[in-house]
Write a structure and sequence with these properties.
single chain; 187 residues; four-stranded antiparallel beta sheet; 2 helices; 13% helix
Length: 187
């Protein structure tokens, strides 16, 4: 073995050790794609914005606010955003921002998400993870797999509520949000 071939072998070993790919092949480590935008949303309004590889961010109206969805075709691929039981950040409802009696702001009396809503999404949801043949609950590994594929953050910058009378459930009139989505550059 000559010096030139020894150097080539060492170079290949160093490259593979650094996870930069093997020798003789181009390395394509794509950085994730990301988009951030802000918008005003009115009560009862369905809000949709296409992004990435044929995906749609959706705020679907509910009686008290909206549900955060990411659609892959007609499938909501945010459905396994934790926690799976109890108040989930995907559900944005006006009463989350009021105390139990609806007499003032929620200052921690109700254990529900507030202005920042983190969620996860992946096209694997409803197919290879929790698909039609699934018989068990998702595992922590499943949730991690989903979160590694896609993440979103919706921040409610300001909002207006109605039905602020005692013993009522407050709901939104409007909200101004900033949304950030991150997903792989290649699908």
């Amino acid at each position: 073995m000559n010096l030139q071939s020894s150097s080539l072998m060492v170079s290949c070993w160093v490259l593979s050790s650094l996870s930069l790919g093997g020798c003789g092949e181009a390395v394509r480590s794509a950085a994730p794609s990301s988009i951030t935008w802000s918008d005003d949303i009115q009560a009862g309004m369905t809000y949709a914005k296409a992004f990435g590889p044929d995906l749609v961010f959706l705020l679907e109206p509910t009686p008290f606010g909206w549900t955060i969805c990411v659609l892959d075709g007609s499938r909501d691929i945010t459905a396994l955003t934790p926690p799976l039981h109890g108040p989930n950040p995907r559900y944005i409802e006006g009463w989350h921002f009021r105390n139990e009696a609806n007499s003032g702001a929620n200052v921690g009396e109700l254990n529900v998400p507030q202005e920042r809503r983190d969620f996860i999404f992946s096209p694997a949801v409803g197919t290879t993870i929790q698909g039609p043949q699934s018989t068990a609950s998702p595992t922590p590994h499943d949730i991690e797999t989903i979160s590694q594929w896609g993440r979103g953050v919706l921040v409610i910058d300001r909002y207006q509520l109605t039905d602020l009378s005692l013993e009522q459930k407050a709901h939104f009139v409007s909200m101004h949000v900033t949304i950030t989505l991150t997903w792989p550059s290649v699908r």
